[in-house]
Amino acid sequence: xxxxxIVGGGISGLAAAFALDERRRAGEALQFVVYxxxxxFGGVLFTEQVEGCLIEAxxxxxxxxxxxxxxLCRRLGIEDQLIGSNDGDRKTYILVKGRLVPMxxxxxxxxxxxxxxxxxxxxxSAATKLRxxxxxxYPARQSNGDESVxxxxxxxxxxxxxxRLADPLLAGVYGGEASQLSARAVLPRFxxxxxxxxxxxxxxxxxxxxxRQSQPGPPIFSSLKGGMQxxxxxxxxxxxxxxxxxxxxxxxxxxxxxxxxxxxxYASDQFDGVIVATPANAAAPLLEIASADLASELRxxxxxxxxxxxxxxxxxxxxxxxxxxxxxxPRREGKRLLAATFVHNKFPHRAPIDRAxxxxxxxxxxxxxxLQLSDQDILEIVREELRQILGLKAEPLFxxxxxxxxxxxxxxxxxxxxxxxxxxLVKQLPGxxxxxxxYRGIGVPDCIRSGEAAVQQLLS
Length: 460
Fold this sequence. Notes:
Elements: E1 2-7, H1 11-25, E2 30-35, E3 47-50, E4 53-56, E5 62-63, H2 68-76, E6 82-84, E7 92-96, E8 99-102, E9 107-108, E10 111-112, H3 115-120, H4 126-135, H5 149-157, H6 159-174, H7 183-186, H8 188-196, H9 200-212, E11 221-224, H10 229-238, E12 244-245, E13 250-256, E14 259-264, E15 267-271, E16 273-276, H11 280-286, H12 292-299, E17 303-313, H13 315-320, E18 326-328, E19 339-342, H14 343-346, E20 356-363, H15 375-390, E21 398-409, H16 415-427, E22 432-434, H17 444-459
Parallel strand pairs: 1-2, 1-16, 2-12, 7-18, 16-22
Antiparallel strand pairs: 3-4, 5-11, 6-11, 7-8, 9-10, 13-14, 14-15, 17-20, 17-21, 18-19, 19-20
């Protein structure tokens, strides 16, 4: 009988537990335990119902093109609960000099694939539009080591594209800065396209044509009818309560003979293998005794924090808000808001027809100090900046504030080289595997994949 410990009860740890349980039910001689330091399982997957509105405290969806989350839903038997974003109304705005400017058609992430909309938009200056036109003839270039996303985008399109698109997009997704995040780790497709096509625009267009050769594509974002917490609840519901140990913070994970000892509180237990599914910076002190070198590398992966504020408004506000999914705020606009989502447009069923639901994001690597403020102070900042940006003066019917400290891993330049070193050090510790958003993707599907891969690593 092989015994496995999972340290961390977020989505990565739960996905690993379910993968182990599938193998146990298929006949493998396995036992496992999930240690969670807090009172609940699911990590950042947390959903509330307030006055008929469904509020996501953490991620509200996942990228449909990454299959691991939808596949897990199918294996859990909740495939019928999957829903897609309302892409017919998909429009995103960028705040430029105090005005909301829609992102032009044909823009794939931050790459223009259609010249006419890019040349006609007021989002870019004449100099940037000239760069966009010239970029179609950019020569192929082989990558010479890692560089920042900002450096790559600026080389193709200029500094304004970094300021107005790359930086706010990455702040919204990673809570990070284009000048710091690794191109190879965050946007590997861009690096591949540059080496194959030269022009990112032509590379993206070729990728889009390949997609269009098949049937019409699915929605960009997917979620669950009951919110993202529904996925965590489904996982917990399929696991025996005996294997779930809430309020059990682990202090150390140590090698002993041919196995591992996990110390939690005043108790220690022995296992054949351990999956550490915590943030990398939380994994570091746990593994200090087992490998100081590994702990040092894990500690070097930095994290940013975030604050999410959900505001509910009445019918009058809903009628006046712009159509579309929401807006992004470039750093040079001088706001503390990073972005806002019009949830009632993105996922219409999450708010009644007489309600507007707006989700605002603050923090990230540029404003970690916001977490030190009171809920009331944060709410006042959000309301004032929504007034400045949208002219929104109405009193919210309700407000909810959620804080996520050190929640988003920052894949700095050189991240993939660090991962190689980490993986080499892990190989020196048989029976150890790592999972979570600190390594090869921060989204929900990436975390699920990492948990499942950790199981495969231990049992292969």
